[in-house]
Design goal:
The protein is of the alpha/beta class and 196 residues long. The protein has one domain (23-45, 70-195): Rossmann fold (3-Layer(aba) Sandwich). 30% of the residues lie in helices and 22% in strands.
């Protein structure tokens, strides 16, 4: 079985440290014992070629990979072989149609009516990855809407955290952990993980 890092490289997802962020190895560590158990995973922020191509080949003069629209959704689908993968994005160019075990929604994940309509369509979630706007207020608003739809024991991961203080303040009553790989050129290379 391929690691998440290998799948991210294959599809061009920026979660691999070989391409951009340092998330995939940590996710492998967090999720490896759940690979066969996860049934539903949702990612906020799908990405599309014009936006993501620059990140999929960050700091490489020659492109290493060609970005696939929704690259991380494909990586999640292949990593969690028993899971349905859900995605939300505000841009039509990020929508994926006709792929096995992947369903995407065109919506703003901070908009309560839109999110309520989506959640009425999907089961409780094992894992959420918020790779959306990266704006703390949006990350908090999205978490407020999605956290009640998490399974007990689920993991809610917020990526690309520049400043952890707003999240730490908002979720001080939750069981959370911060993983930090911030470095020159990637000052937002952090995950804020909430254990549900």
């Amino acid at each position: 079985m391929k690691t998440l890092d290998e799948l991210c490289i294959y599809y061009g997802a920026d979660k691999s440290p070989k391409l951009a962020h340092s998330y995939a190895p940590k996710y492998d560590e967090l999720f490896s014992d759940r690979r066969d158990k996860v049934k539903n995973i949702l990612e906020v922020g799908i990405g599309y070629s014009e936006l993501m191509e620059q990140y999929a080949n960050w700091n490489h003069p020659e492109p290493l990979v060609i970005y696939t629209v929704g690259a991380s959704l494909y990586a999640w689908r292949d990593y969690f072989q028993n899971a349905q993968v859900w995605g939300i994005d505000v841009d039509q160019r990020a929508q994926i149609v006709g792929q096995e075990r992947i369903k995407t929604y065109l919506a703003d994940a901070t908009d309560e009516p839109s999110v309520a309509k989506i959640l009425a369509d999907i089961p409780k979630l094992d894992i959420v990855i918020d790779d959306g706007s990266h704006i703390p207020e949006d990350q908090i608003a999205t978490a407020r809407l999605l956290l009640p739809h998490m399974k007990k024991g689920g993991l809610y991961c917020i990526e690309d955290i520049e400043n952890t203080t707003p999240l730490e303040f908002e979720f001080s009553h939750k069981d959370y952990e911060i993983f930090d790989w911030a470095r020159e050129g990637y000052t937002n290379d952090r995950i804020f993980l909430i254990r549900c």
